[in-house]
Amino acid sequence: MRITAVVEQCVPLRGDIANALVDFSSHTVSLVAVVSDATRGGKPVVGVAFNSIGRFAQSGILRDRMIPRLLAAAPETLQNDTGGLDPGRVLACAIRNEKPGGHGDRAAAAAALELACWDLNAKLADEPAYATIARHAGREPAGSVPVYAAGGYYYPGSGGLGVLRDEMRGYLGSGYRAVKMKIGGAAQAEDLDRLEAVIDVVGDAAAVAVDANGRFDPDTALDWAQALRPYALRWFEEPGDPLDYELNRRLIEHYDGPVATGENLFSTPDVANLLRYGGMRAGRDVFQMDAGLSYGLTEYARMLDLMEAHGVDRSQAFPHGGHLINLHIVAGLGLGGCEAYPGVFQPFGGYSPDCVVADGRITPGDAPGFGLERKPGLAELIGKVSS
């Protein structure tokens, strides 16, 4: 089998929301289709993926550097032992002649290509991607996984606490039992009022996480740790700059509750530094690296291996992203749980109708691959890049 074409489309996210630092109204995503010469029903089998959510499309890196490398490669150099695409070999080809370090946008561009190969291989095997991923890892796939609803953003003209309460009630009514909300975008007193409103709706502070999106300097992070300590929350996410491991370590020394970070770490060396210097605790803290932002599943699996080598169980891994690709990764690799974006970041956020949420758990659908073609709003875009 060989790759006959690779197509990338820059897709705008829908929604007018913000966290403590970022307004998402102008954000975009790279939707990628890897077209093969294998056929099913007289049509080429196409692997589809994207570079996660909450950053920007990587059109230039893909168009000018990575896609030409793949199309120029000898087909056999990209194949696995059964003649399908080897995602690791595709990744190595895509980043050929790239220097170490400087991961950022490059890591997300490569991830879209690498993840599309997993979708393609699962379609060739006529099975959901989580089954392909589990078999490759020598594991049994999970039938369902824990899931939490991420929301509580800063909405323009939101109407105050009433709208926030209604949002959280909607998540509970849809089958979610745990939620996450944003802090750091308002004065502390206002954000604490927002937090107490959410806890009141959910009924259990241990089911509520807060996310500062890296907003705080060291002193402010410690001040917030003191303010949050009495609530005994599910976790306190990304209090400061993701590469400030000293800040993370200091905060953990003063905060007994779980701390979550990692969504903005894009390589195994980054995760190694977090484990060495960030103070993260086995059995307590949460690692949120996202394959769609960090070179794909090949690199993400190395991150998990590194965590386990440091005594951290994979149940502490909750990937960022809230989309179908990470749902299949969580189910295939037996991770701690999955984020969901039920009402934001469309058309990529959230899940397709065949993914059932019940009592705080979600079951992937049975469509071959990641099932992106079953996602309303996304299916139409996939049809355009795949044709």
TrEMBL record:
One Pfam family name is MR_MLE_C
Q: Which domain of life is it from?
A: Bacteria
Q: Which GO terms describe its molecular function?
A: D(-)-tartrate dehydratase activity; metal ion binding
**What are the names of the required cofactors?**
Mg(2+)
Cofactor comment text? Binds 1 Mg(2+) ion per subunit.
> Mandelate racemase/muconate lactonizing enzyme C-terminal domain: which residues?
161-258
Q: Which residues form the active site?
A: K182, H320
Q: Which InterPro entries match?
A: D-tartrate_dehydratase, DgoD-like, Enolase-like_C_sf, Enolase-like_N, Enolase_C-like, Mandelate_racemase_C
Keyword field: Magnesium, Metal-binding
Q: Which residues bind Mg(2+)?
A: D211, E237, E263
Q: What is this protein called?
A: Mandelate racemase
Q: What is the lineage of its organism?
A: Bacteria, Bacillati, Actinomycetota, Actinomycetes, Mycobacteriales
